[in-house]
Amino acid sequence: MKNALTMAYIGDAIYEVYVREYLVNLGIVKVNELQSKSLEYVSAKSQRRILEYLIDNKLLTEEEEQIYKRGRNAHGGKSKSSDIVTYRIATGLETLIGYLYTDKKIERLNEIMKEIFKI
Q: For residue range 46-83, what is the model confidence (pLDDT) as tens digits?
């Protein structure tokens, strides 16, 4: 796997595209509403809640949990809007998304995103 923070950087962008596409497909057309709804998925606090749900419900493979942990434990930036633990967990989720995307595991990425949108 490439550098965990590089995977998080890619994963952040890919995750955002999935969320935006999902919200638009719900029929939301007002930009303010799209922005507001997207925070249910893209804020560090939301990403922490999502990642904890995935782990608690055993929806990740052992390999995926290891990738998440590499991202979580990577030393990177700091958040102005959340505590460091929440920020690192969110980074771990983004790392996992980035890994699945760059490793061309798109079917698995789609499965995980479907689970996320059920929450």
A: 999 999 999 999 999 999 999 999 999 997 766 667 88
pLDDT of residue 1: 64
| Catalytic status, residue 12 | yes
Distances (CA, A) of 115 to 33, 103, 109: 22, 20, 10
CATH number at residue 40: 1.10.1520.10
Count of the separate structural domains present in the chain: 1
- 8 Å CB contact between 53 and 119: yes
Render pLDDT for 73-100 as a digit per residue (tens, 0 to 9).
997 766 667 888 999 999 999 999 999 9
For residues 55 and 83, the answer to whether their CB atoms sit within 8 Å is no
For the entire predicted model, the pTM comes to 0.92
Other C-beta atoms lying within 10 Å of the C-beta of residue 56: 8
Residue of 12, 56, 83, 103 marked active site: 12
The answer to whether the CB of 94 falls within 8 A of the CB of 47 is yes
Give 26-29 contacts, CB < 8 A, sequence gap 24+: none
